[in-house]
Amino acid sequence: MASHRTLRAGLIGLGAMGRHHARVLREIDGVDLVAVADPAGDPHSVAGELEVLRDVQGLVAAGIDMAVVAVPTVYHEAIALTLAESGVHALIEKPIASTGEAGQRIVDAFASAGLVGAVGHIERFNPALQELRSRLAAGDLGAIYQIVTRRQGPFPSRIADVGVVKDLATHDIDLTAWVAQSSYASISAQTAHRSGREFEDMVLATGRLDNGVIVNHTVNWLSPMKERVTVVTGERGAFVVDTGSADLTFYANGTIATAWDSIAAFRGVSEGDVIRYALHKREPLRVEHEAFRDAVLGIRHDVVTLEEGLQTLRVAEAMVESARTGQSITLA
């Protein structure tokens, strides 16, 4: 990093996620956290020597190159547009915005300003999912048949402005499209409201990707057990990822191709070898920040783009719409 200048970074939003962003911004090379802002103050005492500014204008006035936006989703648009107008690159926590229209305005503003914009879909930087994606791309599974995700756990009292679809299911939508390297073609969903709040707190969704892979997502924040699982089943077996522990396990289809012509047409499935891969596990948030820093510096570009974040949000909106209407939604 020595050959590049140090980037001046700002952070807006000092809550549950903001405190982790502050720590990582201080840890990585080539970045200097010079300003923090949150109108609600600094509940986790992350500011350190820095003054806690009131708003995004204060952040911009500190002379920053890049900013991390970790405020509630409803405020993403206004803050992102101010950063774009001010010529500041931004990493926006997921989802990109609370509506597709707002997301589109953010995409357009950063594109016309020629700035790097990224969305914090952190699962892409999970070592087990990165390993899974490269193995799928290398053909380790042969043809991919289905992808199933389960993301369940206790209720996060801090999330009040969106439901479980936009808050949690967006992780699964993004990681599924990314590991399969294919967009969603259609989605159908059922939701439930069990906690007495305005937004849905459970969703079951099923869909199909453009490449023909069928997908299923179970997402809620009403479960006493925490589960973060992705299962990809294909011709040669199944990969199981626990993204909580960053473990990747392969269950091989043990059926050996037979030389007996009359039964060779049907290749069944049987239990084969099981392999748990040893992975180099780095903190996903740190890997995500390094990718954003390098994108700002023009070194590489493997961030989750604003366009991808918007695409994910549109699938989430289609889930909510499907649950409301009882119809399967086709995505353009």
Please provide a written account of the structure.
Helix 3 runs parallel beside helix 4 (100-113), helix 4 (100-113) packs antiparallel against helix 9 (306-325) and helix 6 (164-180) packs across helix 9. The strands form 2 sheets. The protein has a 9-stranded mixed β-sheet. Strands 3-2-1-4-5-6 form a 6-stranded parallel β-sheet, with helices on both faces. It has 2 domains: 7-123 and 285-304, Rossmann fold (3-Layer(aba) Sandwich), CATH 3.40.50; 124-281 and 313-330, Dihydrodipicolinate Reductase, domain 2, CATH 3.30.360.10. The model has no long low-confidence stretch (mean pLDDT 94). Helix 1 (18-27) links the parallel strand 1 (7-12) and strand 2. With 332 residues, the chain is an alpha/beta fold. The protein is built from 9 helices and 15 strands. Keywords: NAD. GO terms for molecular function: nucleotide binding.
